[in-house]
Specification:
Layout: H1 2-24, H2 52-76, H3 79-91, H4 94-102, H5 108-131, H6 133-161, H7 169-201, H8 212-233, H9 238-253
Length: 255
């Protein structure tokens, strides 16, 4: 784990150096995107069984399950379980927040995808990780697919914002996988830090880590989720990429 921490720190330093180069380089032309109509990038619902109504019903049902798990953890006074169930429950409300604050109506299939990933992780904290060896792998693969989608949306937003930047399909796929691996390493470091803090102040670690084999297994199935998105599902994140394009323009222009 200390090797991962060191590598992550080196990566952050390299990122800062690249950002300074990117900002100062006169070879990269920047184009402001104003008044872009994101509707041209709207995509149909993700390829999940059922229609939009079915997706919404399923998402609400899973939110109810998360609510019950959070209430149970709170009633038991178990902080670890409450964090691991209340946090995912909060994540499921992000699509509604984006719609209200930014006018971005996320497709229902993607909303359900987010809710399923959140529910898998919350339920896993209730001893499912220990009871079923495959469950942790499934949860990581599903959540990694969402992280991969975010990474793809970021890359596409940068590409659309700058006329001097053009990524081919292979580069996007590579970026998606590396993005997921980087986030996965960050997550493992958080679990490591959680265990270290718990050993110092006492109590149970909020994020559990079960040794080297668990770390490797998590990273492997993170990669599986990333490869699935990079190979077959990137179109579902084009709408998010369109919304991020304007944000990239405002950030780089200093507005």
């Amino acid at each position: 784990m200390w090797d991962l921490v060191t590598a992550a720190a080196a990566g952050l330093v390299a990122g800062v150096v690249f950002e300074l180069y990117f900002e100062r380089s006169t070879r990269i032309a920047r184009l402001r995107v104003s008044g872009a109509d994101a509707s041209e990038f709207d995509q149909p619902d993700a390829s999940l069984p059922g229609n939009g109504t079915h997706h919404r019903i399923a998402a609400r049902a899973l939110q109810a399950v998360l609510g019950v798990l959070s209430a149970f953890a709170l009633a038991q006074g178990n902080v670890t379980l409450f964090v691991n169930s209340g946090g995912p429950l909060a994540i499921t409300f992000l699509p509604a927040l984006f719609r209200r604050e930014y006018g971005y109506g996320m497709n229902t299939g993607l909303v359900l995808w987010i809710t399923v990933a959140s529910t898998l992780h919350a339920a896993g904290a209730f001893e499912l990780y220990e009871a079923f060896g495959w469950y942790d792998s499934l949860a990581h693969a599903v959540s990694a697919s969402l992280v991969a989608g975010v990474g793809y949306a970021i890359a596409r937003a940068v590409e659309r914002h700058s006329g001097a930047v053009a990524f081919n399909r292979k580069f996007r796929a590579t970026f998606v996988v590396l993005f997921v691996l980087a986030v996965g390493v960050g997550w493992e470091i958080l679990e490591f830090a959680s265990g270290g803090i718990a050993s110092i102040i006492g109590g149970e670690a909020v994020l559990a880590q079960y040794g080297t084999s668990d770390i490797v297994n998590d990273l492997v199935f993170n990669t599986v989720g990333a490869l699935v998105v990079a190979g077959w599902s990137t179109a579902h994140f084009e709408g998010l990429a369109a919304r991020l394009t304007g944000r990239v323009g405002r950030l780089t222009s200093g507005d």
